[in-house]
Amino acid sequence: MASTATGSIYQIEQIARLPNHLKRHIVEQHYDRYLSVDHAVWRYIMRKAFDFHSRHAHRSYVDGLQQTGIGIDRIPRVEEMNAILGRIGWGAAPVDGFIPPAAFMEFQAHRVLVIAADIRQLEHIEYTPAPDIVHEAAGHAPIIADPEYAEYLRRFGEIGAKAMSSRADFELYEAIRHLSILKEAPGTPAAAVAEAERAVAERQAALGEPSEMGLLSRLHWWTVEYGLIGALDDPKLYGAGLLSSIGEATHCLTPAVRKLPYSAAAADVAFDITTMQPQLFVTPSFAHLIEVLEEFADTMAFRRGGLEGLSRAIASANVATFVYSSGLQVSGTVVEVVDEDDAPRYVRTSGPTALAVGDRELPGHGRGYHTDGFSSPVGRPVGSLLPLEECTDDDLARLGLRSGREGKLEFPGGVGVAGRLERVTRANGKVVLLSFSGCRVTRGERVLFDPAWGAYDMAVGERINSVFQGAADKDAYEQASFVPHERTIKVEADEAARRLQAIYREIRTVRDGQAPAERLRPAFARLRADHPDDWLGQLEILEVLAKRGGDPALAAEVRPLLEARAASDETVAHLIRDGLRLLAT
After folding, report:
1. Residues 408-414: what's their mean pLDDT?
2. Of the candidates 237, 239, 224, 236, which has an alpha carbon nearest to the alpha carbon of residue 293?
3. pTM of the full structure
4. Which of 450, 477, 504 lies at the terminal end of a domain, its last residue?
5. Residue 398 lies in a domain
6. Which of 26, 46, 351, 410 has the most other CB atoms within 10 Å of its CB?
7. 565 half-sphere exposure, CB direction, 13 A CA radius
């Protein structure tokens, strides 16, 4: 469970409403663990991002920073973000790195933005393979201030939470999470990273035909993470992956990256998380994103239902829910469908199964009761003028079904049900369940249910209208959203890192007006003597001098060192030059 130290976050309305299985992913932000160098990394990225995105991002980005409580000078506190996000009906929750896609989608459906609480290392200042607070807070949050885009995110989460996924999907997720943890952990051996990259490649190659979740993940990637908006020949950025990575943002606007009109066909285009993308998709508007999403959703099992949806449930080998036309929801692992004329006639689950209506479990019909599975016919009984779910007690009597008496029903596909009717369960004015004792269910010579097995609860419904991943009432089903056992690596600072942190802290106290500018010179001397490769600290000193004035001799000493480093080290040359350029803005 989330630490009790995070208790205050549950006072936020959007967080308080979350189901318990999602709350298990929430962690404490531990704001006091961010170092002064972390805040310096944030400031550098945000100053550069603000400068670039004010010209190249969607118009809502700059306004959205302010509207969502995200500043440039320091890493935001999640509780501060929540105080502002709440005004637009959203919330934010800190989590530990990548969380499973289904959980991510469900958070989004509840209008909660998950925030990976860690921040990238200085060595990964332009790009990190792991989700971090720069990507989540500075990438995702500002754009949700746009109501149309916020609705797209919510709707995507709602649809994505119902998507069928496969075991191969989950194995790929675990491999990607492991790789991202290793890449962001200081001192990870190159051999370990190479092995993790090989595992990701193997999992991707083994995916086979993409599942619904796999296809939706592509749409999510090409829009929410790497989306462009506007005209094909002059698009603006809105995807969080681009907004939080100035290197890729700059590259994506060049002719080297093809710009394609966004459509549902983007689901057929795979992506590679380890490299810059060779093409990106451009939507003319946020409204178009919703249109494409709805077009894709029409192909999914939760809307198509029927034999096709049940077949996808079997292929997923996961807990799924199929919904009868009566509104009854059956949640379990679907293992068999008897069909005729391309329609399901009988469905069987294996293992713990629960029955629900309106996503609320029916009393007495939880997984603890249906421990070994559930099975039932689908369809209108032969000879009935009405769907069984629409029948009154009189209608049932005309079919030979009276409480406390023996009765018999025949269904299309040759399924027969014969037993003593004990109870009729209705919900929302419809019959959803008929409970029998001494019941035998057969199809030809095959016995589908024997009286010796106990009471028989028969689901009622003419059709299967919907099939979706997961249990209908996840908390009652105790379908805890999987929380990864492998946690992001928190490395204790060594002596050199502690000394560097002390220097950055000293520079920050001067920036914040808590110490005189004269303290910068000794800080620079220690930085130059003990950490000659650290360029960001020197840039911070120049920026404070430019902001507060004083000691022009120190500025004249620092700038040539930075310029010389830029001239001699191409790996950081553009970072330093961009930083120097921003001093004038």
Report:
1. 96
2. 224
3. 0.86
4. 477
5. yes
6. 26
7. 21
**How far apart are the C-alpha atoms of 9 and 80, rounded to whole Å?**
10
* pLDDT tens digit sequence for 424-475: 999 999 999 999 999 999 999 999 999 999 999 999 999 999 999 999 999 8
Among residues 202, 221, 240, which one ends one of the domains? 221
Write down the number of H helices and E strands in the chain: 23, 17
Six token digits for residue 59: 């118009």
Backbone angles phi, psi at 281, to 5 degrees: -110, 140
Q: Is residue 269 one of the residues assigned to a domain?
A: no
Residue 345 three-state SS:
strand
Furthest C-alpha separation in the chain? 101
Q: Which residues contact 453 (CB under 8 A, 6 or more apart)?
A: none
C-alpha to C-alpha distance for 35 and 538, rounded to whole angstroms: 17
Distance in angstroms between the alpha carbons of the first and the last residue of the chain = 46
Among 117-121, 156-160, 259-263, the minimum mean pLDDT is found in 117-121
d(CA 94, CA 78): 7
Beta bridge partners of 436: 421, 456
d(CA 409, CA 130): 57
Q: Tell me the β-bridge partners of 402.
A: none
The whole-number pLDDT of residue 176 equals 83
Residue 132: inside a domain: yes
Q: What percent of the chain has pLDDT over 70?
A: 95
Cα separation, 239 vs 244, whole angstroms: 9
Into how many domains does the chain fold? 3
Question: Are 539 and 568 members of one domain?
Answer: yes
- One domain for residues 18 and 44: yes
User: For residue 386, which amino acid is it?
Assistant: L
pLDDT at 500 over 70: yes
Q: For residues 490-508, b (16+ Cβ closer than 10 Å) or e, as one string?
A: eeeeeeeeeebeebbebbb
271 or 223, which is more confident: 223
Residues 67 and 216 in one domain: yes
Q: Work out the mean pLDDT of the chain and round it to a whole number.
A: 90
Indicate the DSSP class of residue 488: P
Say if 536 falls within a structural domain: yes
Distance CA 429, CA 326 (A): 9
- 503 and 378 part of one domain: no
Same domain membership, residue 331 and residue 445: yes
What confidence score (pLDDT) does residue 479 get? Answer: 63
Structural domain harbouring 390: 321-477
466 and 405 belong to one structural domain: yes
My answer on whether 387 and 461 are in the same domain is yes
Phi and psi at residue 181, in whole multiples of 5°?
Answer: -65, -45
Q: 140 and 26 share a domain?
A: yes
